[in-house]
Amino acid sequence: MGLKAAVKRAVAQPTVWRATSALRAPGWVVLTYHRIGAAGEPMTHLPASVFRDQMRWIRANCDVIDPQSLSNRAPGLGRRRPAVLVTFDDGYRNYLEHACPVLREFDIRAINFLPTRYVDESRPFWWDLVDTAARTTRCERAVLPATDGRMIDLDQDGRRRFARHCKNVLKKIASPDQSPILDEALAALGFGRAEVPLSRQVMTWDEVRAASDVTTVGAHTHTHPIMSLLDPRSLDQEIAVCSERISAELGARPRFFAYPSGAFNDDARMAVQRAGYEVAFTTVEGFNTGTIDWLTLNRMHARPTLPELAWMLTGWDLRMTVSNETSS
Question: In terms of DSSP H, where are the helices of the chain?
């Protein structure tokens, strides 16, 4: 075990955590999760056992923020017990099976941000199509899409590189799900969209309602576009349709919004404000302090282990990053 890994494990211990409180960064943290899964599941996920360890630790060592009480007033900025809000993106079905029982056990309420078209239509996300097609293809070689015909060998490393390349290309397009490049990528792997062996990934509305005792539903647009690449009219439509669908299904307008893929600009922020939202979340890593913009709140991706999560909540890595950038 390396020195830094040993330090991270030590920080997660309650006695060390309490002893180092004065050294931690002030501010409150919003955690982002996506999939919580069981061992052996092929899609990338955080193991349910790790999620339980993290929620148990957060309940014992932090002040959990109830989203229903979150308003334009910053939660406590104390260092001894930092305030933490738990959020999920995309409404994956394994949230109901693996995350909700843990949230109930530790009395934690999370926000789950829903892209409503995928709930309505049982539609697979474009990145899941790419990952699944790359993992299951029988092709030995494929042409990388949006290149000059460059071929790649589809060994284990090549499949990962193919999927990574496709996702990097598609994230530069306003509506990746509608792009012919997605179809080109799947065809290069031997699939049409309907042929990719992928079961329903997103909750149904009934399943969303079944999770309501520990879940506050947030808006995540209708089709999960890259909002920083949309024109103002399309931005307004994406937000309006999402809000209307959630209101129609759940009986209340969502209070919270999250930018898909964390992509936002001034136009996206203004569209969220026009729609009446007072709180919106990015995926910019960082703590939230008293000087925050409530329409561009920071969120931090949950780490793969409990020691990594505890280390992140100290804020020491962020301080070192800022210090290095200042001195360079």
Answer: 3-11, 14-19, 48-61, 94, 100-105, 116-121, 126-136, 156-170, 180-188, 205-210, 232-250, 266-274, 306-314, 316-327
What DSSP string runs through 82-105?
-EEEEEEETTBTHIIIIIHHHHHH
For CA atoms 92, 66, 248, 104, the dihedral sign is positive
Q: CB-based contacts of 319: which residues, under 8 Å, 6+ apart?
A: 25
Q: Which two tokens stand for residue 3?
A: 């020195």
The CATH number corresponding to 3-114+227-321 among 3.40.47.10, 3.40.50.80, 3.40.50.1110, 3.20.20.370 equals 3.20.20.370
Domain boundaries, the chain: 3-114+227-321, 126-195
Tens digit of each residue's pLDDT (9 = 90 or more) over 309-318: 999 999 987 6
Torsion angle (degrees, nearest 10) of CA 220, 225, 231, 235: -20
- Residue 85's CB is within 10 A of a number of other CB atoms, namely 24
Q: Counting Cβ atoms within 10 Å, is residue 189 exposed (0-12), middle (13-18) or buried (19+)? A: buried
Token pair listed for 89: 């993106």
Q: How confident is the model at residue 72 (pLDDT cuts 50, 70, 90)?
A: low
SS (HEC) of 146-212: CCCCCEEECCHHHHHHHHHHHHHHHCCCCCHHHCHHHHHHHHHCCCCHHHCCCCCCECCHHHHHHCC
Tens-place pLDDT, residues 237-264: 999 999 999 999 999 999 999 999 999 9
